[in-house]
């Protein structure tokens, strides 16, 4: 047998040490649990999941009273568990503002004398100021050959959306990405507006999920997503409007204006102090988000987008981890942060990571829970486990060892690759911390067909799998909380974007 290369021997040694840490943690807990799995209870998870993602909180839309009501409920659960407040002014809460920019109701769009209204029979894909009065030219499906036959300079360009998405990417994401990129190409070629008409598949998205465009864009105040600029509009129409845009001699006349508002959102922050006099000043941060999409256009008669998996599962998991740490605190302090307005662009985690309520340098690791209750019962994924997304091999190896000591999930590696079209690594609350150089990983069971639809209901969650991922999360955090050294960051960490 050939000798093992040094890199493999080093990796084996790291995994062995991490395994010892997790095994030691499980052994320490056996005195009061009797079984390493009993610290996380399925009954607790199910009760909290159905509460947070039930219709009472109306989908917990970021920046609404529903998000605030759900946040108060979470704070009260933390109080009942015995978690110490760690937000602002001795409370569980860190309030912040989010800014919304949207198309005004008096904006006007017309083609050939027919009037369209944003959010009803037309969607303007990005809020921006525009005044257009231009000939409308139709270029089929917008292939290079079709566009080359038409002089688009100074024109409004109409085309039918078409295309087949890659296997790994959701159709909705493919649709929006393709529209954005194709529109940019046409505007660069001289078009003053772009008008998309739905094909059969796009029409389903237009009918059932177009409310996101009606809401506009969100950011922290003054952020790039809410800056008001003048731009060539991209307008999306229904499939039934195809004959209209195909008629020769049509004109697009549009006056589009925007307005901006600020709303409150909130992070929920609590801690369970560590038992070690020195290490208790350091924090293991358990992360999730409490918001989802709220009340929107009904789909099959259901207007509440409950977000049971996204992210009722993560919300319930953190409460379970709190109970486990309350029974037996670690040497380091366990810090729990529910980030508000994640669905608006990771706003709560961006805010907390920039203005943490504990010293930023005291945060030794971030363990983020994002959608952890669906798909095959024996599979999961760990985002941030491979380059270029990995920023701490040390932390990743501890998480791998914790998985082997608990659920032993088969770990998907495709979704953490920089080539994966979903860009899943960049879409949850671990990201702002990783950008700051804090060791950070994300536990997820990945997308499913009910993602961001009203069908993401608590009844569809695999409670046993949720418990398995929660135990994995907990054991990783327990190992980090009790080891002598904090996780070592990778010195050469650099994200691809």
Automatic annotation (TrEMBL):
It comes from the Bacteria. InterPro entries: M28_fam, PA_dom_sf, Peptidase_M28. The keyword Signal applies. Keywords: Signal. Pfam families: Peptidase_M28. Residues 267-470 form the Peptidase M28 domain. Gene3D superfamilies: 3.50.30.30, Zn peptidases. Residues 1-27 form the signal peptide. This is M28 family metallopeptidase.
